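Supplementary material to the annual report.
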Amino acid sequence: MRPSPARTPFIVRLGRSFDARSWLLVGLFAAFALIAVPLMHLLLPPENPLHLSTYFITLTGKILCYAIVAVAMDLIWGYGGILSLGHGLFFALGGYTFGMYLMREIGRDGSYQSDLPDFMVFLDWKELPWFWTGSDHFLWAVLLVLIVPALIAFIFGYFAFRSRIKGVYFSIITQALTYAAMLLFFRNETGFGGNNGFTDFKRILGYSITAPETRVVLFGLSALALIGTLLLARYLVTSKFGRILTAIRDAESRVMFIGYNPLWYKLFVWTLSAMLCAIAGALYVPQVGIINPSEMAVANSIEIAIWVAVGGRGTLIGAVIGAFIVNLAKSWFTVSFPEYWLFFLGTLFIVSTLWLPQGVVGLYRRLQAGRGSAQDSEPAAAPGAAVATAATVAAVAKGAGV
Amino acid sequence: MKPGDRLVTDNPDWDSGTAELGHMFRPGELDLSHKVVLYLDEITVSFDGFRALNKLSLTIDSGELRCIIGPNGAGKTTMMDVITGKTRPDEGKAFFGQTLDLTRLSEPEIAHLGIGRKFQKPTIFENHTVFENLELAMKTDKRVWRSLLALLDSAAGDRIAETLQTIRLTAHADRLAGLLSHGQKQWLEIGMLLMQEPKLLLLDEPVAGMTDEETERTGELFLSLAGKHSLVVVEHDMAFVKQLGGKVTVLHEGSVLAEGVLDEVQADARVIEVYLGR
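Predicted assembly:
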């Protein structure tokens, strides 16, 4: 029993968000991503069966970024009950803001040997538009990645949530938002390369972007970002904030009548979710080497929701699993049977909605419960930490003789 | 006089009548100086031409336990919606204490000022445990950043344990609220109201679905709350209304038809005609 929980340092509480087994898994994952992968890619010769190819690094690195997006989606959808079908927008905006920096890093090595990015020379522009100011500074680019998509999400969310737009209406509006943004970015005049977007990157912080070492570092950063996202998300959903968030999902009017303003709670988690997507986008672009407006297509955003549905809503880890399952299947299908991919995706979505409402994680839990004896079958994932807190406080109360 | 105190007359929004108060008040605090906790004056609410409330006037004294009865569609729930900020009246005034204009505040603001509401259909957080339901309802700073860092201290734990005993759910503290019986859910919702420490409790059919024994215990609980809190109980169960004693207001077609002790009201010819006689 903790004598004064209020004085427990935040970092300790963050650490307690994961139990020992989860920390072990996180440790193993980190060791694999940060030590094993670089060694197997850089040191082992290609003939060695344990050698990891560039293809593996790029594909897995990409999926790590998708997994961050999936966790961000699970936060708002699984826990907040807000289904966004426009989350691809924030991912793409993160990619674009960081892509601006990568375009500037090309320097005079582009096709036109100009200080301006190629597409601007092609459009016969003489100088950089004002919003490209400072885009040659790495830290400024990072700052923009963190601020711009979050700000857009905040403003959009403020008006949507203040007007109490919910459910399917909110989903449709988010679709419209990302679609409108896509049309805007398709235009050459917008200043982001039109339908070609940004590509042909050469360097990042002076290092060659295609060098194996750079790839390994980007891969490692993506893995760390995913761990950080999971840790933060886990802290949030096990905190009082998380309990209020799920309460808003289940009975918003009750939440209001006990004195919480759902607007700020939704807005916080919505903005945070957008920010996480932007970080994922910024890590994604240097790894795949291109960003264009098709990332803002509505279908991309819907796919994010499918990852989460397949893995299991409201479980966090399910989002990661779903992102890996669907994207690995996708990369296999689009090579072997490219024309059947969308049919497969649709079937997967229908199957998971009809028979696996809790996704793969729900299936796993059901199998576990089936193997274990007659346990109290609880409908949703009861936050274990909260139950533990309840037990602790009950013990405190008993000790005090109440 | 503290900083932020103003003379009532300083505020141009209020008509000259309130200037006679002639004392200080603190903005945002409940002023019970005239022993009135709730004051509704000529409230009218129309939905597509239908007058759900028609010049409804009602005054609840501080510490009073008032029962409101009336046939379906008499406007009881709409009245609660107006008091809690869910519905804005087309006309009329609604004041909490002397100074707080309820028609200008949002639901969370009104809840924060000290009006708790129990819905007709028990509205609790079914996917949270009983304990967590009470934890979330507890009176505290309910802003986002506070909730992000909040941890239960032992005083809060005591408060919850105390309420659990009052509503007799101690043994169910760690169960999901969705698994409780209907009567237990009603009690949990009442418990959540108690955790809010409201000055005024609005209770919409609090004993619906309870056994006779549970109903009686609920009545005892309400009677013990009266005095310290003010209660407005909407109820169809006449035995329960009788148990609570106190003043009874009869609503009909959106306005007050009769007011008085239950026996008087039940003897009123108009009341018999519209309500009890049917």
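The beta strands of chain A are 198-199, 203-204, 207-208, 290-291.
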